[in-house]
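A further point concerns the way the authors explain their paired sequence and structure data. For illustration, here is how one protein appears when written out as sequence plus structure tokens:
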Amino acid sequence: MLLSSGILAVETQGASAFEIFGIKLWGSSKEDDADVVDPLDYAVTFEVDTTDDDLKEAIENASLLKGEEDRPVSGSLGLLAKARNDRERLVAALFSKAHYDGVVTISIAGKNLDDLAPDAVFDGPQPVPVSITVQPGSMFTLGDIVLKGDAANIRGADFGLIAGGNAASDAILKAEAGIVRALKEEGRPLAKVTSRTIVADHATTTLDVTLDVAAGPIAGYGATTVEGTEAVDRDFTVYMTGLEPGRKYSPKEIEEARNRLLALEVFSSVSINEALALDPTGNIPMDVRVSERKMRYFGAGATYSNTEGAGLEGYWGHRNLFGRAEKLRISGSIGRISDTTELGKLNYNAGIMFEKPGVIGPASKFFANLKASYEHPDAYDIFSVKGNAGVSYELTRQQTVSASLAVDYSDIEDALNPDGKRYLLVSTPLQYAFDNRDDKLNPTRGFRALAYVEPTYDALNGNAFVKLKGEGSAYYGLGDQNRFVLAGRVAMGSILGAGLDDVPADRRFYSGGGGSVRGYAYQGIGPEINGKPTGGLSYAETSVEIRYNYNDKIGIVPFIDAGTVSARQFPDFGTVKVGAGIGVRYLTPFGPLRVDVAVPLNPGPGDPSYGFYAGVGQAF
């Protein structure tokens, strides 16, 4: 299924550039160069004397002269400044790979950069030739490691500082940050490296490192001040940090406070920093600086798949309704546009959502939803009005629980109730979620698990049942750059306490389509009556993907999905349907754009020959 939210403009500029959502996907635009004074074009030849492809790539990527070769500089002075900056960047790139005796040579118009006058003029034919030669030299290892001051009793090996170990500048800086972090986790906000001595021994290709560290005293939080708030209440911002005065300082709590403020979605940036000194009471004042986002937004989107048809959606929202990050969102959609010509067979949805954070502490959120729908999926026809209200609470940064009260009125026609049946459901959905993925849209490591329980009573028909669901997904990146990522998902569910015909059709389990088993139609897996899906009382699904990043922009993803739906209360694994396919990912700053094509491996008589799906973010 193609899911594209907020698509308002697609912009093309000539034949060499393409932009979507305001993000340049490839090419350059002449408008980018319109502000360059006295534009001067240049051409780069780049040579790295190494057979190490990873080292060569890292060095070339560090060069702005090479990376921005298609953009002119501002005159001769601009070219000189860029060349000097490039040399520093290339040396830093060598240091980051533990090469401390490398040589970087840059020539402009045939003359070495060091031999050029500060006001040299390149008035010959353009583009001006620029030559960059890098001799990486030897790879160094760590030699003597000395930790002094308050770090004298710390084991350097615990942070990667060990004789014969990795001497890359990035590794040393990471070790420094780790040592300081360890001291800060003791409640010492002023911990810092006071001096660093690095000595490269070219004869032995070793790097001696001496660090002097001051821990500072243990302290609690002092007063929290906020800068940058205008529409958002300042006192509320302080409250949502959760940094209570007097409580022991913790860098982990500060990270959680920053993430909590960002999760409010009213700030585009948040920084939280300690003061440079303790206050008179011995506590550390905290400084919060924020930048606010636009509070009102609207958008439109489109959906499409060859098995589910096309759809349109629109929405309007406010991120800060009453000044304390209250969210309001109103949305509507029409689906199955290309699937039917009858207006009465289209899918219609309208809804309103409200959220208020911080109702019972900074880690809590109140939410309420009201939704009306008139839909015609393959399994049933339904008119429903649903409302719910509840609270979610973050136990930790990775763990969230929620509870709500929901009321659902529906009128449904399906294969088991062809004359229609009305329901009035009162339920209490309860959910626990664990999520430590490194990226929600494109994870490369971590795990996500969800457990869901919904006791339900049907007030019109006197039936009661409990819906149980569990889901888990795991991600494992291979290599330093996570070029390959193994991803897997497992999901199961069961409905207990009622027969299949007593459970409303929209509450039963279904499988098939872009969100579950690709290659099959939406709701296309499971029991049927006269070719029409009935849904089931249980289901099980699994998916495995190998995500390969061909380069920084393009990914290739072979995958296999499997699923089963049963009319019994427990899954029947003798009727598993399997689909397989391959996908392409275009990596963007807001997440990967996904296109998948899949085929059913054991199709039934009514199953499609293939499925095509597209969207934003990975499949799971």
